[in-house]
Amino acid sequence: MWSRRGLSAMLWLYPRNKKFDCGITVNGFLAGLVAITCPCYWVSPTGALILGAVAGVVCIYAVDLLEWLRIDDPVGAWPVHGACGIWGTLSLGLLACGKYGASGPTGADDSSPVTGLFYGGGTQLLVAQLIGSASITAATFAVSMAMFYAVKATGTLRVSREGELEGLDLHEHGAPAYPELLLSEAISPPSKATTGVTAGAPAVAE
Questions:
Q1: What domain range is 63 assigned to?
Q2: How far is 106 from 203, CA to CA, in rounded Å?
Q3: pTM over 0.85
Q4: Cα R_g (the chain), whole angstroms
Q5: How many angstroms separate the CA atoms of 89 and 99, rounded?
Q6: CATH number for 29
Q7: 103-104 vs 107-108, strand pairing mode
């Protein structure tokens, strides 16, 4: 099933670039794996297939959002782990199949199965998941902003202009991280038609 998640991202993006993008395909695999982490125990195989396929598409539009906001995330880490992680938590409220209950210290309690909206369980579970995701997102954002403002106050948040122009891989580490991309661009510079989604490097799986 994980392969279908990558295929959904690859096929969804193909009409835009007219190419099968390897990077976004790999990130589609990872997006599906991240999304299934929350609801894996409570969804059916069909539900897992649906939420994984949706995760591949969510990943693409999350990359588009970051580019529109002019936020640099060259490996697509937030689209994969952030946006698709949130989608995974919300998908429990939609796709929990109503066969399994909450796990406890002695095993699962199937006397009170968890049921999502699409299986007749109403919106209670979905609302609970939405509140949980929103709370964690807000807390993470607040702590991260405080930390980065503290780093900014030390004058060490940004590199020099020379480092920005050279690229951090070369400036900080002395070697390009993706030399094959440099070779490819030297042979055939990217056209405007292929610069929509730039999550060319897969995010690192945790």
A1: 2-159
A2: 36
A3: no
A4: 20
A5: 18
A6: 1.10.3430.10
A7: antiparallel
